Amino acid sequence: MCGITGFLTKTEHLSIDVLKRMNDSIYRRGPDSEGLLLEGNLGLAMRRLSIIDVEGGSQPIYNEDGSVCVFYNGEIYNAPALRASLIKNQHQFKTKSDTEVLVHLYEEYGENLVNHLEGMFAFAIWDKSLQKLFIARDHLGIKPLFYRNDESGLYFGSEIKCLKQIPGRQLSLNYQALDFFFAYTYIPAPYTIYNEIKKLPAGHCMICTDGSVSIRQYWDLPPIDHTSAIDNPLKKTKEHIVDAVKSHLLSDVPVGSFLSGGIDSGLVTAIMAMHQESPVETFTMSFEGQNIPLDDERIYARMIADQYGTVYNDYLVPPDPAAVIPEVIEAFDEPFADDSVFPSYYVSQIAASKLKVVMSGLGGDEVFAGYNRYAGLLLAQYYSKLPRWLNSYLINPLIQKIPEPRGGGEKIDHLKRFTSASSLSPANRYVSYVTAIAEEKRQKLYKQSVSERIDFDLTKSLYTELYDSYDGDDISKALYTDMKTYLPEDILALSDRLSMWHSLEVRVPLATQKLFEFGAQLGTKQKITLRGKKLILRDVAKEYLPDAVINHKKQGFEAPMANWLRHDLKQYCNDTLSQQKLSKIGIFN
């Protein structure tokens, strides 16, 4: 695991100092060592967090004749099998690292090497003989890749801050991206908060040669096969999950686990414990402080830890959110508003004090339908059969009048969203469920001059077009849209930025392309019905986890924001969001 950065300019030769500044800006991603390559108008660099082949995996790594080299961030979990196949084809290896597999795989398959990879990655391969730079991001977007392509050349990096080190390059605010943020609380690919910088979308690669840059998608979720059903789906679901967790244990350093007390992290931890020789070190946390109740999921985390004999680390963190916010802002480089940043920051900090690698249960909700919005879409199929006038003139007006509690009323908010969206198309209904601030409110939020620079239809259509493009029922379409947007640019982005801020690698065995491909072929009723969510995953978990863990109500990995806004963060918000300061920005009414 590490961070990468670099450039391929058209005429200008940038200095080694520029390349080093770009690389130093992501020092936290890999404090163990660095690698630099500067040849004419090509500059490539990396920061390394040593996990596999600790002594011999330094980059750049070349092929046999030095014509191909790679700079790489990530882990290739099928590297042992790929290595064996490449050795049979007479490729010669100098190291034991998965990085070297990439250069030989490129020799064998060219750009199609990405079709053979299982893992999380963002890498850059320089083909000296063809004068071609090939860059790719993993299937689901676990690892980030940002780039700037302008008249002077191509610049890229694992974080936006790399691209801020290029001399003489100005950045301007992307108002469309700003609206995406206020609509969804994150900015979807390919947008960033800057007009000049883009995200390489998940499952895409980039080719730079002869001064031109092209981008293509190399992977997408295959269409559902409606002609056949999966035989013994419970057994195969278990096999896929076990295989994924086992493959993610590949490491030359100890691997721990985040353990929240929920099904996803509990299942990952249980399987780790059954296939790892030494006890799994687990990390559980909650906040302490004024008026903050203890998160009772810690009870369930302890049950799992006791059952599997883990080295159990249970932390009560005295929160100081105002002190953490500047670091979170620097870690993300652009607006981001998921309140899970606070527990993620602290649990990553705690784990990094003991280990370099942990596993997480992220991805399970997007494969097996674990969010309330999926239940809402399912219920809407029945609710929409009511006479339209009944909802429009009686039920919805009454529901909208229900006051929300001072501390935040998630249930009431969900009910209001549900009834108000009942007459919409399924795609627009989905968008209404995932929208944080409705369009009419956002239009009132901005100055007129700002609103004129925003295509509000685009803010919605990016999601509705993805939803409608997938062939399946409403739940399948929603899962697909989340996989393309929310998963890579919210859930996985949060995990990457805050773990890497603490020089910690987080692996996500429930977020693999194989598991997503398999999950898409499962019937919707095996994932969600009116009885509940993530049904087949719960059935798998019955073999591994206590009934109390499986049956207790799901709690998100969130911070007590309503409480903090009234207490710990009250003064900070009053100072930061004062009318005087907001008026100086020139964006808001």
Task: Describe the secondary structure blueprint for this structure.
Elements (H helix, E strand, L loop, with lengths): L1 E8 L6 H9 L8 E7 L2 E7 L12 E2 L5 E9 L2 H10 L9 H12 L9 E9 L4 E6 L8 E5 L2 E5 L2 H4 L11 H10 L13 E2 L4 E6 L2 E6 L15 H15 L7 E4 L4 H13 L5 E7 L9 H12 L2 E7 L3 H12 L8 H12 L4 E3 L4 H5 L3 H12 L4 H13 L9 H11 L5 H9 L4 H7 L2 H4 L4 H14 L4 H11 L1 H16 L3 E3 L5 H9 L2 H4 L7 H7 L5 H5 L9 H6 L3 H7 L2 H7 L4
Parallel strand pairs: 13-14, 13-16, 14-15, 16-17
Antiparallel strand pairs: 1-3, 1-9, 2-3, 4-5, 5-6, 6-7, 7-11, 8-9, 8-10, 11-12
Helix pairs in contact: 2-3, 6-7, 6-21, 6-23, 10-20, 13-14, 15-18, 18-19
Instruction: Give the radius of gyration.
Output: 24 Å
Low-confidence stretches: 290-294
Q: What is the CATH architecture annotation of the largest domain?
A: 4-Layer Sandwich
Strand order of the largest sheet: 2-3-1-9-8-10
Shape: globular
Derived from helix and strand composition plus strand pairing, the structural class reads alpha+beta
Largest sheet: 6 strands, antiparallel
Helix content: 40-55%
Q: In the CATH scheme, what's the topology name of the largest domain?
A: Glutamine Phosphoribosylpyrophosphate, subunit 1, domain 1
Total individual domains:
3
